[in-house]
Write a structure and sequence with these properties.
alpha+beta; 4-stranded antiparallel sheet; 3-stranded antiparallel sheet; 18 helices; 9 strands; disordered C terminus
């Protein structure tokens, strides 16, 4: 009889599946309740589209989170033998090739998900047929989405299982690394915002894609689009396959890398925090710099009265203290001993401190010229003075904005003091340049204001407000560019305590073009003043506009506009009077824009 090499050992596979019965049994039970039982027991499924939407919404809302948790659990069960000396030595002594053992255990973990998922899909299909509804396509989407995300998270957990040697290290490292990118970027941004003059991030993370669970929850992917008629749901469809397929492909790469590590793993490393010798320095210094950022920032928040340029040294000392804790705790975990305070370890920590101090000094001294950079006028395509993206391409506005930007840099000491003095008054000025090469330059400055500060004609706040409330830019800030009647979802005019009036799309378009836009240019309606220098505040009326646009022009997405009518907005007040509304002066005095 010819001998043959098997890729999977049936005995090990059956043993793993039997030992993990409580895990996959609980997982199966939960999904049976969520899908087939709900399909049979609920009376809210008025038609097929309602049930389809429920299945697709369940898919979009659960596939990442469920796979994140269950993938870790499956990896812990499938490769649990690696973390105890007796079981590791036992499996190492079996007449099995490393390839055979890895494929068997990896396949067992996949079956922990694929098997229950397939059973749930079949039972849900039967439940739908019993209700007279065929939802085979939606259940196939559910099965595919759950499987693709599971492959990624499970393979990532298996890769970490090959790297670590202690049962408690796997879940900890798995959770930390899944959120490392977003956590580190947030902390680095916070430090840069404190020490780099003018630093401003627009809220979009650069590396959120490296934290898939966060990215999926923040971006709402995958997602379900529902098509509604006047009174009922007409259709729904699932989007997000590109991301799911990319994750699954990355998961396959992780599995291949895990196999490469497993072939070279020493079974004697069971019980070590890091089982791969060459990765121990990576873990140590990664842990050190991470603790320097996290613990250092927390210590600075607790011990330093305001993180800013004048408190640079105390903040740096807090970060070095965090590096101290991170380095020596990391050494203790790697050596499984508290006797790590030796000369060479002190030297390594000192070098780490020099690197951290050098990086912080580069930030503080603006070595790369970030704070001093102002784009050239000929390179700027458009500029926005708001937190959003209300860009204007007017050459005059661009030139005046660049002049103001240069003056802010020239008066840096004055503007920096506003941010550091907690008793001072200040307002934030946002600048966003869109360059002709496609890049975007963002800056944010805290401009001093308040009684006696912004009353000077050349105060920065007054200059900023002069640009911000430019008549054409006021229209641009409050209404989308190039909108048409079809872009107006609704337009609601109302007075406090009175029933409002909805305008049709064409009526709303004519109202905005012939009444609101001229008043935005000519009156104080829509204007926002950031200082206290005004001799006479605008008089606000109890008349309001709420306009919903189906798109926000080039930026995409819906946009809601809210405007309060002022006493000098004569055209708008006359239009309200023509509709039978009689606005009065608002009783309260202050009105914030």
């Amino acid at each position: 009889m010819k001998s043959r090499t098997s890729c999977c050992n049936g005995a090990v596979l059956r043993r793993t599946l039997f030992r993990s019965l409580p895990l996959w049994g609980s997982y199966l039970l939960c999904w049976l309740v969520v899908l087939p039982v709900m399909i049979l027991s609920q009376n809210r499924w008025q038609n097929l589209v309602d049930l389809r939407e429920y299945i697709l919404q369940t898919t979009a809302g659960s596939c990442h989170f469920v796979a994140f948790v269950y993938g870790l659990a499956a990896a812990c069960v499938a490769f649990s033998f690696l973390y105890h000396s007796r079981s590791a030595n036992f499996f190492g002594a079996l007449p099995l090739r490393r390839e055979n053992l890895f494929v068997t255990c990896y396949l067992a973990g996949l079956l922990l998900s694929f098997g229950p998922n397939l059973l749930v899909a079949l039972l849900s299909l039967l439940a739908g047929l019993l209700r007279g509804m065929l939802v085979g396509t939606e259940l196939a989407i559910w099965l595919a989405a759950q499987s693709l995300t599971f492959v990624f998270y499970y393979s990532f957990a298996v890769l970490l299982a090959m790297v670590v040697g202690h049962v408690a290290a796997l879940p900890g490292l798995y959770v930390v690394l899944n959120f490392t990118a977003i956590a580190m970027e947030s902390l680095i941004r916070a430090l840069l915002d404190c020490f780099v003059y003018g630093m401003w991030f627009d809220g979009n993370f650069w590396f959120d894609w490296a934290s898939p669970l966060y990215y999926a929850l923040a971006e709402g992917t995958p997602e379900v689009h529902s098509v509604w008629g006047e009174l009922e749901l007409l259709d729904c469809y699932f989007e997000g396959w590109k991301q799911l397929l990319i994750l699954a492909a990355v998961g396959v790469a992780f599995a291949a890398l895990a196999f490469w590590f497993f072939r070279r793993r020493r079974m004697e490393s069971a019980g070590d925090v890091i089982a791969v010798r060459h990765l121990k320095p990576v873990f140590l210094y990664g842990f050190t710099f991470g603790c320097s950022l996290v613990l250092g920032y927390l210590l600075a928040e607790m011990l330093v009265s305001g993180i800013g340029t004048r408190n640079f040294v105390p903040v740096l000392l807090c970060m070095l203290a965090g590096a101290f804790l991170g380095y020596f705790v990391g050494e203790m975990m790697l050596h499984k001993s508290v006797r790590v305070f030796r000369k060479r370890h002190w030297a390594n920590w000192a070098v780490t401190c020099v690197v951290i101090a050098a990086a912080m000094l580069c930030i503080r001294l603006d070595v790369f010229g970030y704070s001093r950079y102002i784009p050239l006028a000929e390179d700027v395509e458009a500029v926005s003075l708001t937190y959003g993206e209300s860009y204007t391409q007017d050459p005059g506005m661009i030139e005046e904005t660049l002049v103001l930007h240069q003056e802010i840099l020239d008066r840096r000491a004055e503007t920096e003091l506003a941010g550091e003095n907690s008793d001072g008054w200040y307002n934030c000025m946002y600048l966003r340049y869109r360059l002709k090469n496609g890049k975007t330059v963002c800056r944010s400055y805290e401009l001093p204001c308040g009684p006696g500060i912004d009353s000077a004609p050349d105060s920065l706040v007054r200059q900023y407000d002069a640009l911000y409330n430019d008549p054409d830019y006021t229209v641009l800030r409050n209404l989308p560019q190039n909108y048409t009647a079809r872009d107006i979802e609704s337009c609601y005019l109302y007075q406090s305590g009175e029933e409002g009036i909805y305008l049709s799309r064409q009526e709303a378009y004519d109202f905005l073009k012939t009444v609101v836009e001229p008043d935005l240019r000519d009156s104080s309606m829509g204007k926002v003043y950031h200082g206290s220098y005004l001799e006479q505040e605008p008089v606000w009326m109890d008349a309001y506009l709420e306009i919903c646009f189906t798109k926000a022009t080039a930026q995409g997405g819906d946009r809601n506009v809210y405007l309060t009518v002022t006493q000098d907005a004569e055209r708008t007040l006359a239009y309200f009077e023509s509709l039978g509304l009689h606005p009065q002066v608002e009783e309260w005095e202050e009105k914030w824009g």
